[in-house]
Structures are given as structure tokens and as C-alpha cells.
Target: Redox-sensing transcriptional repressor Rex
Amino acid sequence: MSRETPKIPNATISRLVTYLRILESLEERGVNRTSSEQLAEEAQVTAFQVRKDLAYFGSYGTRGVGYTVQVLKRELRQILGLNRKWGLCIVGMGRLGQALADYPGFGETFELRAFFDVDPEKVGQRIRGIEVQHLNDLARTVAERHIEVGLVTVPAEAAQTVADQLVEAGVRGILNFAPVVLEVPKEVAVEYVDFLAGLSRLSFFILNPKWREEMMG
Model:
């Protein structure tokens, strides 16, 4: 009987991103080896949690020796799909869309390749050397420029329509900044960035610090 693939919690994926950032910082500081205890201290989790998170994907450390920073960093980048380029587009070039377009932290992994809007005053503008196109051109441009991820920064009432167009055009993932839950096929990944929800959680934990302590272990 074949073993079932374990279900990986969303929180584990989020922590892998944190571990990767820590490893990148350690490498910049000239550190060659680290341990689950050091990663745990900097990530504000337990060493057991670090080992458990990594164990979902394989065995990377040596008992009593720890992890080679460069090797573990490379493995995490591969697990997270960061060892390749991803073509991105932004739909909705209002203030948020333009702020994201100007964000310098996409790096070499995530490459902005197209911008879309329906506002005649925005269509035709050039941002980072890329012309803002009308939303009607989305399907053709996604195919021509090999875009796999769409960032949705339109108002809530337009988000589902935009998501439908992105899915039909063939994108594989959507990062949604609109405060609405999207309906997409199961093969399309969706992540949500909701500033108000984050502030609401923050206000709760400010008023209820014991809950935050329990969640952090």
C-alpha cells in the first residue's frame, strides 16, 4: 500500500519563506553553518517546529552538525519555486498598482512583464518602460509574454471578472489585493493580501497579548 502524501499546512510554507530570509541574511554575514536552534531563535518559533517543517520535504541537517547555510538555502529556493523566473502582470494601475510596479524588491525571480487597466487616462502610459495596456489585450499579452502570475489591484466589485479573465488567459496563480474571496478552478493558486484584515488581527492581538503568546508557542 502506497503512503499518502502528507498535507502540508499553509503556516509551514510561510515559515519556509522566513527561514529562507534568515539563511540569506546569515550568508551575507559570512555564516557557513547554522542549526535548528539558531533558525528557531531568529524566526521566533521552536527548534522542534523548524525540524518538523523541514521534514515535510526531506532530511537536510546532520545531528550534532546542523545545516550548511548555502545548501539549505538552495533547497528552500527549489521547494518554493524560486529557482526559476516567473512572469508577472498587474491588473489595475491605480495608486496601489503603481506602487507595486515601483516596488524594487521583486528581484530576478519575479519579473513584471505587463500592466493593464481600463481607464483611458492610464492606458498608454509607460511605467518602468512598459506600456499600460487595455484589459482587452490581456489574453494575447499573457500568451505572448509568458505570464504565469497576475496581481489583482482592482476594486472589489471588479476582482472576480478580472480573475476570470486571468484564468481564461492561462495564468497559474493570482495574488489578490481586493477585499473579496475569488472563485477559481482548483488548479489555479490564489493568495490574498488584505491590509484591513491584517490591521484587524493586529488590533485583536494588541488587546489580547496572551492569545498571541499561545499562537507563537
